[in-house]
Amino acid sequence: MFTSKEGHAIPQVTFRTRQGDQWVDVTTDELFSNKTVVVFSLPGAFTPTCSSSHLPRYNELASVFAAHGVDDILCVSVNDTFVMNAWKTDQDADNITFIPDGNGEFTQGMGMLVKKNDLGFGDRSWRYSMLVKNGVVTKMFIENDEPGDPFNVSDADTMLNYIAPDHKLQESVTVFTKPGCPFCAKAKQNLIDKGLQFEEVILGKDATTVSLRAVSGRSTVPQVFIGGKHIGGSEELEAYLG
Length: 242
Fold this sequence. Notes:
By secondary structure, the protein is α/β, with parallel strands linked by helices. It is built from nine helices and 13 strands. One of its GO terms (molecular function) is peroxidase activity.
């Protein structure tokens, strides 16, 4: 059974990080003092749930958290700095600060260090998230103590709903494009003009026309999807946006 640390100060730890070709020590005081910080901690870099769901959603919603007073979002894992740096690059997660708790000191101080020997992981972090204000934990969301790797309450949407319960999230937008396409540029500009964030899937780099035909029934670009609905090309998007 895990105990919430709400109302308690975070552990004082110095993290060994690699920035470029230099070793740089980063303290918890530097990370948390006089700041509002969201932390999410997980079992390991490059692991399935962490890479497919936990990290990407926090990265996606970083600007929304910032608009509601969050100064930084930290991802903590019991991994070394080289692994964490490689994972950040692999995930294109530039909105997140990656914290390598290689010795598990911070995680142990939070009471969240668990043994994952059955997976060959050794000691790792239990999955949780927390809101920290000036070094003091004000809210924690801890996954239930049950077998496996539960992921139900430490997600970005749960944390955002706690911080900003009245905020209505934008529907997810994806645009299939190809380089040099003027209609694609027009569609993207229309979305930007409306203040809509979107993910761009570039044919030849991120996907092929096979995938485009499979999901849209078309082979021309752009093809725009909003909230699970196929909108169509640039003219159809313009009409949809009014």
